[in-house]
Amino acid sequence: MSENIRLRLFNDNDLNGVVKVNRAALPENYASYFFLEVYYKFPQGFWVAENTRNGSIIGYCMWRVEKTFSNFAISLRRIKIAHLISIAVLEDFRRQKIGERLLKFGMDSMARFYQVQEYYLEVRISNTSAIKLYEKYNFKKIKILKGYYKDGEDAYLMAYKLTN
Ligand SMILES: CC(C)(COP(=O)(O)OP(=O)(O)OC[C@H]1O[C@@H](n2cnc3c(N)ncnc32)[C@H](O)[C@@H]1OP(=O)(O)O)[C@@H](O)C(=O)NCCC(=O)NCCS
After folding, report:
1. Which of 49, 57, 62, 153 has its CA at a distance of 20 to 30 angstroms from the CA of residue 15?
2. Radius of gyration for the chain, computed over Cα atoms and rounded to the nearest angstrom
3. Ligand 1 center–CA 154 separation, angstroms
């Protein structure tokens, strides 16, 4: 990762930058208030990558906590699971380990601050680069979610469990 890229927690001033990256990089776009809502609830799960040359945001990842059932064990007990809502890096900055560091920083902080025991996410079955990234961090494909996306594409639900 270039020395001009700094990873740090999101703050309100980053909102426009994050919205721009989201629109440039992904077909799943969210209203500004949604980003802020997640940030206010789970501030430690929202990381940005900043280009320190000009202060622009070039990537982000955003997690939230859900109390739900494990993807790995059949149990009636709900546990705290981190859900990756969105991650993206601007095209010009890809393949420099920025996405990887955003993912890792987010995961570490979700365990540390919210005591999650597990992580999960959805990814388009055609999104090979993202799937490779998640597999590098030991996420496993749990199941296919048929027609999950608005355009009808299926998703993999991928999950990773921390060992106790
Ligand atoms: C997925 C994404 C965030 C990866 O960001 P990135 O900064 O380019 O990724 P990194 O440089 O950190 O790559 C880390 C690992 O991911 C995998 N990877 C990333 N891009 C890849 C590509 N184009 N082809 C194959 N593997 C790739 C590799 O395993 C890589 O590890 P390696 O460099 O040791 O081979 C980026 O491609 C992106 O923003 N895509 C569009 C948005 C998106 O699809 N988000 C995910 C939605 S679920």
Report:
1. 153
2. 15
3. 19
